[in-house]
Structure formats: structure tokens, C-alpha cells
């Protein structure tokens, strides 16, 4: 609708996506050195310094921040993906399809592109 | 009582308007049906395709309750037309809906935290709120209990536990509606930095629009999150918004995140204080839903199951739908024969028989399949399977701008595009839904079957293409048939891709979708939804189909030629003349004027082409096997008087089939698209693009065939 036109138009432009990807690759590079793994008491692998899209089924993490500015970001936040929240990837659809994640006690599916805007950290790095 | 006192009419009957709001899958529809029973009205909000539902019931004290069932939503921030409308209704700024006196917020106890997010936004509107807490029985099964009294204390608004399917808690809920009490001030807290940054904007709103402090705060927040306000914008207001944004940016405050975070922090505090574990299981076992999902969403078995479910559903729709469809047709025929006895023979009887009954018969013959399809869609949605199916199919569909949920509408379109297009309602994303509607008629529907059958059986030589030993596995007609289906699918995906890249570029796609826990279906909800959607089809599409049927009848019967043979009468009619007028346009495709008449007449429905050809070539009952064979024979013998060559060659037959694969030869579909997109823009666009596509592709095929020397014979 009208309110979406301004914000919603940007993430769809291929050029914007490409810039974002490049920016994220750069961010990834600097963060790679700080990327950490940790296994908690239940044996789950918690990862940090990566985006949600890079997690494998069974892995989890805490949300550090959401990239981007558009209404897509508001949507993710409103569905409960706020900083400090624990997310776990339950499964990923075949052929690089959407992810099924557990957040705030419910199951949410989102596409890989949407998940790549969700940056993860250890809880203590960005406690709410 | 206080809430409704201003509505007391002088007749003595009072009415309270309540809005029913809640997340999708929270049990809202079940509650709405339990409260209102059959006293509901379903329609659309004008100008948009958002379903509008309203019901009536009587409160214990005799007051009438008007219940507005708003679309399910996760937030009042308007991301979609659904949310925009719900917000406008709550704020009382829609002229077609009264401002609600009270809001009944349906909250799913098993998913309390996320459900309370929208509650915090509803509380911000300042309207009296009652919480209807659902699914508490499910929560107890999970070993957790929820203290409704604590919840009521923390929220500051009445909380009623309801089990709508058993009718529990409904009376209490209705009693509370008459005295909901005033809402508390917003309890969610933003940081001081945020509060200070927006205080100027808040004060301006408070003074200029005479809002209370809390309402002004809420409005300031929503203005800053998205430029969409109930208030008329002024230059001063816009300046203030910009200034506030600058101030927030200067202080390095991510306003949107802070506000949403603050609401969730409030929700999570409430959850912690009101929930307690009842059973003492040490390790949380995998839930039933998770265990089912391991199979249903499995990268291999998930697809196997999905295709099995689809095969079952469509097999049932085909086989069970066929009988009632025939019954409907014979019922219409019976009415026709009664009318023949009552009405004097002449124009009136013909109008009634061919125009009115014809149109009604067309509409009603779709009905059994539509009912069945909506029954299954309702069932799949209600149990939670639909979201999983969309999850599995999304990757393939998203490549061309579609949504995982586009799959079922497209599959239904192989039976008939009408239920397929109506089934696109389940697609939340506006762009994906529109693309699905635009390409759905390219799927070869059952009405094309008679055309394919006539053409292949008459003109495609029955030659063996592939086989093992004495067993013939593939024949040329079989291959042609299959090729037509694949051509339709290929065209559909190509066009979807083209629309995705050009016309509808720039609309952001999203697949953010909840995968709700599996639940046993609420049969009443499923059946009610099936009936509602089918009734909408009869009422809205039916009227258009009926009126166009009358027009087509008129065109095919006038001017009157009382003593002429049917063949002469048809070719001399306005419709026949039209066919001859469009003949020059069709000549480059190798079609003559007879095919022009056939194409013109089959705008009402594609299968009419066969009966029109039957009339033109003077064949009785061309639909029957014998009739079809003799029609094919006569068509074969037809010779162009100028050139002496045959009119129909295998190449012409193939070209004609290709034309029918791609052209929008169906007014019923046009009517449904008009209804579903709420205007003539998209159906006309669709008609034009499909006809153009059909003409161009047919032209290419015909001339390529001629160049390769396939045209003779």
C-alpha cells in the first residue's frame, strides 16, 4: 500500500541487494576473526559473528542487530526478532529454500535473504 | 454500561459495537462463529480485497452486540491492506465501519509473548479492551498453567478464559463487554533518551488534536515508525516529524528497534509473572508439532507426502465434484423443461432458456468443485499443513516472483481457473497474489479438454512415437496432448517471471510466515468458511456471468431469421458477423471465418467452440463420441473455395490448440478476476496480454510450420 512504496521499493532493486551483499561480505570478513562457537549444556551449538542465514539446522544464536532500514526490518522486529532474543534453526527447505526457526516459543519461516539481515552474537555481547 | 449509554436510541434498543482483533491462528474465527452463530454477513471492504465479516448477538442484558471480525494480524503497523484496514477500523476513521465501543482482543495462551505484542498496540489506542484468552487447555497439556487473575492485574484490563469449541466462558465474555472499564496508561517503557526526543512531537499532537497524553504518545510513536497517520498532515507536523527523526539520528537511537523491543520487554515481563510450570519434566521433550514436522517438512519425505496429499485432494475434487456437477446441469435442464411448459415459445422462452438458465448453469456447475476445493483448503489451513506446504514449495515458486502458497491455486487451475483464482486469497503477499491471478488461466483447465480432444482425434495421425516391443507407450495424439499442458505451464512461469521483473517490480516480497502448531480441525469453522466463500462466488461472479450470458445469447440470436437453418441463423447473427469481422485478424494464423465464429462464441466458455463448430458444420450432438467423429470428418473435408486446399491441416489444428492454451477465452474468469482484484484494470490487462500472447505464439508456430513444409496435406 502507499506506506510501503517508499520503503519497500529499495530492497527489491538488484543493485541495492548487491551493495548490501557486498557490505555484508565485508562485515563478514572483519567478523570472521571474531566468529566463535560455543556448545551449551544441552549440546546445542551457539554461533556468533555470523548471519542467521549461515546457521545449519540445530544451531542457534542470539540476535545482535538487524541490518537494513526498510519495512522488512520492522516486520522482522515485530515478529519478535529483537536484539538479545535466542533463535534456533530447526530446518532448511531443500534447494536453498526458506528456514524454519524457533523464536520466542513459536515457529517462524523466512527466506534466506531475509535471514541474512539478522546478525547474531553471544548473549553477553549485546544483552537486552 | 457506560460505554454504550451514548448509543441508546430512543426506540429503546441499544447497540454496542465490538471489534474482534487478534493474531492469525489464535482461535479468533472459532470464537466469532461461537458468538454469532449463523447471524453473520460477509463481504469486502470497498476498494480492497480484504474480507469484511460482521455478526450480531444479544448480550445477557438484552443489548444488541454488533461484532466486527477484523482480519488476523500480528501488528497494527500497516504492512499489508489487512493491517491497514484493521488499524483504520480501530481508530474509527473508516466511513464504512462504526468506531468500536470496545475491543475484544483474542490472545493465544500457548503463544502469549508474541500475541501480547499487538495487545500493547491495541491498548495504545485508548479504547476499552477485553482479553479473550484461548488455547488454555492446550497450554495445560504442555505442562504449563497460566494465572488469568495475575494476567488481568498486570494488563490492567479484564481477561476471560474461553474455550470456544465447547462454549465455555462465552457468557462471561459477553457480560464483561457491557462494562469493560477504562484502559490503563501504556505500561511499556522506552528509554529516557527516546522519551525526551519525541516529547515535542507528543506535545504538539496533544495540543493541536486535543488528544490525551497517552493517545498523543502512541500517535507520535506510530508517526515516527511509518508515515501513516489517522491525522491530517500539516506542514508543521511534517517539520516536527523530520526534526524528531534528526534528533533521534543525532543521538544514535534506533527508534524502531527500541520501541518494538520495549513492547516485547513488557510482554515478556507479563508472561514471566503469569505463567508457571505445573508438571516437573526435567528436559523439555520435543513437542508433537516438532515430531510431525520432522516428517512433514523432511527434505525428501516431506515432498513425497506433499504430492500424495495433493494427488488425494484433487482426485477427490475431480471424482466427487463430477457427479454433483452433472446433477446441477440436469437440474438446470429440468427447470428449463418446466419453463418450456409455462412460458410461451418465442423470444422470452429462449432468453430464459439460453440466456438466464445458461448463465446460471455455468455458474452453478462450478459450484461443486468450488465447494470441495474450499473445504480442503480450509482443512489444510486449519490443521496447519498449508503453511508447511508453502514452506516446501517456496524455493521453486519464488524464482519467478511467486509465493509458496501460489502452488495450490495454480494446481486447482488445471481443473478450472475460477476456484484457482479464488484460492489465491490465502496468499498474504500482494504482489505474489496478483502474479498468481494473472497466470492462473494459462494452466490448461478442463474446459479446454473438449477442444484438444476434437482437434487431436481428427487431425493428429495416430502414429506410434515410443514403445517397448508390441506395447505402444506413446502415440502422436498423446504427445500433442501432453505438449499442450506443458506449453501452458511453461507460458505461465515465463509470464510470471516477466511480470516479476517488469510490471510489478519494486514491490518487496516477503515470506515471513508463522508455522502454527498442528491442531485438529474445527469442522464448524472449515464448513462455514467454505460456505461463505462459495456464496461470495455465486453472488458476485454469478451476476456478471449471468448478465454476460444474456448478452452473448442476444448476439447469437439476433437479428432474427425465423425460417433459416441453424447454421445460417448463427452465421447471420451479430456474433456470426463478429466472427467474420475478426476473420482477417485470424487469417495470418491460418484460421478461416468459421473458426472466427467459433472463437467469438467460445468467449463464454472454451468448450462452446465444439458446439459452435457442430452448428456450423451441421452436426447433431457434437459432444458425443459419434457426433465428434462426424464433426471431425466434415471439418477435414472442408475446402477453401478459392485455393481448393483443405481448411484444416494438422498444422492448423495444432495452431488452434496453441491458441486455446494461451488465450483468455472465458468470461467467467474475467468476472472472477474483476471481483478478486476489485476493478476492471487487471482483468482487462489479463485479457489483452493473453490474447496477444496467444496470437503471437500461434503466428510463430503456424509460419514456422509453413516454412518447414508441414502446411500441405
Name some characteristics of this structure.
heterodimer, A: 128 residues, alpha+beta, SH3 type barrels, five-stranded antiparallel β-sheet, globular, disordered C terminus, B: 713 residues, alpha/beta, Rossmann fold, seven-stranded mixed β-sheet, 12 strands, 60% helix, 9% strand
How would you characterize this protein structure?
- The complex is a heterodimer of chains A (128) and B (713).
- Chain A is α+β, with helices and mostly antiparallel strands and 128 residues long.
- In chain A, 30% of the residues lie in helices and 28% in strands.
- Chain A is globular.
- In chain A, strands 6-5-4-3-7 form a five-stranded antiparallel β-sheet. A two-stranded antiparallel sheet of chain A has the order 1-2.
- Chain A has helices at 2-9, 14-32, 71-78, 112-115, and strands at 36-39, 45-48, 60-66, 86-92, 99-103, 106-110, 118-121.
- Chain A is built from four helices and seven strands; from the N terminus they run ααβββαβββαβ.
- Chain A has one domain (2-126): SH3 type barrels.
- Chain B has 713 residues and is of the alpha/beta class.
- Among the domains of chain B are: 2-178, 3-Layer(aba) Sandwich (Rossmann fold); 192-252, no CATH class.
- Helices cover 60% and strands 9% of the residues of chain B.
- Chain B has 29 helices and twelve strands.
- In chain B, the strands form three sheets. In chain B, strands 2-3-4-1-5-6-8 form a seven-stranded mixed β-sheet, sandwiched between helices. Chain B has a two-stranded antiparallel ribbon with strand order 7-9. Chain B has a two-stranded antiparallel ribbon with strand order 10-11.
- In chain B, strand 5, helix 4 (112-124) and strand 6 (129-134) form a beta-alpha-beta unit.
- In chain B, helix 17 runs parallel beside helix 28 (667-677).
- Chain B is elongated, with a radius of gyration of 30 Å.
- Mean pLDDT of chain B is 82; it is low at 1-11.
- At the A-B interface, helix 1, helix 3 and strand 6 of A face helix 4, helix 11, helix 12, helix 15 and strand 12 of B.
- Strand 6 (106-110) of chain A pairs antiparallel with strand 12 of chain B, so a sheet runs across the interface.
Amino acid at each position: 500500500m502507499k506506506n510501503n512504496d517508499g520503503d519497500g521499493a529499495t530492497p527489491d532493486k538488484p543493485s541495492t541487494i548487491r551493495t548490501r551483499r557486498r557490505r555484508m561480505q565485508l562485515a563478514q570478513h572483519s567478523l570472521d576473526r571474531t566468529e566463535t562457537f560455543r556448545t551449551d549444556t544441552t549440546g546445542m551449538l551457539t554461533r556468533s559473528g555470523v548471519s542467521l542465514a549461515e546457521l545449519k539446522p540445530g544451531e542457534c544464536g542470539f540476535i545482535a542487530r538487524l541490518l537494513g532500514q526498510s519495512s522488512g526490518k520492522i516486520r522482522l522486529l515485530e515478529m519478535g526478532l529483537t536484539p538479545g532474543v535466542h533463535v534456533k534453526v530447526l530446518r532448511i527447505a531443500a534447494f536453498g529454500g526458506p528456514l524454519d526457526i524457533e523464536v520466542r516459543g513459536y515457529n517462524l519461516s523466512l527466506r534466506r535473504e531475509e535471514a541474512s539481515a539478522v546478525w547474531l552474537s553471544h548473549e553477553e555481547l549485546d544483552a537486552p | 454500561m457506560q460505554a454504550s449509554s451514548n448509543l441508546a436510541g430512543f426506540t429503546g434498543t441499544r447497540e454496542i459495537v465490538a471489534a474482534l482483533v487478534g493474531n492469525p491462528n489464535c482461535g479468533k474465527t472459532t470464537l466469532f462463529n461461537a458468538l454469532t452463530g449463523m447471524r453473520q454477513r460477509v463481504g469486502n471492504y470497498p476498494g480492497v480485497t480484504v474480507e469484511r465479516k460482521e455478526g450480531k448477538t444479544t448480550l445477557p442484558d438484552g443489548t444488541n452486540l454488533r461484532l466486527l471480525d477484523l482480519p488476523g494480524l500480528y501488528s497494527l503497523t500497516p504492512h499489508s491492506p489487512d493491517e491497514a484496514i484493521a488499524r483504520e477500523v480501530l481508530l474509527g476513521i473508516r466511513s464504512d465501519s462504526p468506531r468500536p465501543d470496545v475491543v475484544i482482543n483474542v490472545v493465544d495462551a500457548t503463544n502469549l509473548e508474541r500475541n501480547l505484542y499487538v495487545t500493547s498496540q491495541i491498548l495504545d489506542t485508548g479504547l476499552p479492551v477485553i482479553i479473550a484468552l484461548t488455547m488454555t487447555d492446550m497450554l495445560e497439556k504442555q505442562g504449563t498453567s497460566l494465572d488469568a487473575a495475575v494476567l488481568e492485574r498486570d494488563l490492567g484490563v479484564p481477561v476471560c478464559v474461553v474455550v470456544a469449541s465447547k462454549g465455555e466462558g462465552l457468557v462471561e465474555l459477553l457480560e464483561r463487554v457491557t462494562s469493560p472499564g477504562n484502559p490503563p496508561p501504556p505500561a511499556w517503557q522506552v528509554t529516557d533518551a527516546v522519551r525526551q526526543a519525541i516529547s515535542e512531537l507528543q506535545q504538539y499532537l496533544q495540543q493541536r488534536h486535543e488528544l490525551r497524553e497517552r493517545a498523543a504518545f502512541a500517535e507520535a510513536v506510530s508517526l515516527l515508525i511509518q508515515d501513516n497517520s489517522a491525522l491530517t498532515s500539516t506542514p508543521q507536523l511534517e517539520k516536527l516529524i523530520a526534526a524528531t527523526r534528526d534528533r533521534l539520528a543525532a543521538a544514535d537511537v534506533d527508534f524502531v528497534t527500541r520501541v518494538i523491543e520495549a513492547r516485547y520487554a513488557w510482554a515478556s515481563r507479563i508472561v514471566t509473572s503469569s505463567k508457571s510450570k505445573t508438571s516437573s519434566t526435567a528436559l523439555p521433550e520435543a513437542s508433537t508439532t516438532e515430531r510431525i514436522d520432522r516428517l512433514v517438512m523432511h527434505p525428501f519425505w516431506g515432498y513425497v507426502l506433499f504430492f500424495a496429499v495433493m494427488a488425494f485432494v484433487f482426485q477427490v475434487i475431480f471424482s466427487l465434484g463430477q457427479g454433483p456437477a452433472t446433477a446441477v446441469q440436469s437440474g438446470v435442464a429440468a427447470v428449463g423443461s418446466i419453463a418450456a411448459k409455462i412460458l410461451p415459445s418465442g423470444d422470452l422462452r429462449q432468453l430464459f432458456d439460453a440466456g438466464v438458465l445458461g448463465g446460471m448453469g455455468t455458474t452453478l456447475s462450478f459450484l461443486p468443485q468450488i465447494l470441495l476445493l474450499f473445504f480442503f483448503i480450509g482443512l489444510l489451513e486449519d490443521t496447519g499443513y498449508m503453511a508447511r506446504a508453502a514452506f516446501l514449495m517456496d524455493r521453486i515458486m519464488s524464482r519467478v516472483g511467486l509465493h509458496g502458497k501460489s502452488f495450490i491455486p495454480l494446481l486447482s487451475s488445471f481443473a478450472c481457473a475460477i476456484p484457482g483464482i479464488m484460492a489465491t486469497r490465502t496468499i498474504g503477499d500482494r504482489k505474489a497474489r496478483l502474479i498468481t491471478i494473472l497466470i492462473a488461466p494459462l494452466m490448461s483447465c478442463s474446459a479446454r479438454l473438449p477442444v484438444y480432444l476434437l482437434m487431436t482425434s481428427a487431425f493428429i495421425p495416430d502414429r506410434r512415437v515410443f514403445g517397448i516391443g508390441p506395447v505402444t507407450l506413446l502415440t502422436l495424439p498423446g504427445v500433442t496432448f501432453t505438449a499442450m499442458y506443458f506449453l501452458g505451464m511453461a507460458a505461465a512461469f515465463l509470464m510470471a517471471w516477466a511480470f516479476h521483473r517488469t510490471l510489478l517490480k519494486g514491490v518487496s516480497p516477503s515470506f515471513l510466515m508463522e508455522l502454527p502448531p498442528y491442531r485438529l480441525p474445527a469442522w464448524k469453522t472449515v464448513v462455514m468458511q467454505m460456505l461463505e466463500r462459495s456464496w461470495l462466488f455465486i453472488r458476485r461472479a454469478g451476476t456478471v456471468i449471468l448478465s454476460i450470458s444474456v448478452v452473448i445469447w442476444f448476439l447469437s440470436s439476433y437479428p432474427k431469421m425465423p425460417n433459416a437453418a441453424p447454421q445460417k441463423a448463427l452465421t447471420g447473427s451479430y456474433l456470426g458477423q463478429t466472427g467474420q469481422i475478426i476473420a482477417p485478424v485470424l487469417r495470418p494464423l491460418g484460421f478461416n471465418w468459421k473458426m472466427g465464429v467459433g472463437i467469438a462464441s467460445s468467449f463464454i466458455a472454451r468448450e462452446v467452440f465444439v458446439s459452435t463448430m457442430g452448428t456450423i458444420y451441421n452436426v447433431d450432438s457434437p459432444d458425443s463420441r459419434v457426433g465428434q467423429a462426424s464433426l471431425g470428418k466434415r471439418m477435414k473435408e472442408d475446402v477453401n473455395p478459392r485455393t481448393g486446399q483443405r481448411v484444416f491441416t494438422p498444422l492448423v489444428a495444432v495452431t488452434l490448440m496453441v491458441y486455446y492454451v494461451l488465450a483468455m477465452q472465458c468470461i467467467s474468469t474475467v468476472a472472477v478476476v474483476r471481483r478478486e482484484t476489485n476493478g476492471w484494470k487487471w482483468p482487462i490487462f489479463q485479457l489483452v496480454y493473453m490474447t496477444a500472447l496467444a496470437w503471437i505464439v500461434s503466428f510463430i508456430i503456424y509460419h514456422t510450420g509453413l516454412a518447414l513444409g508441414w502446411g500441405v496435406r
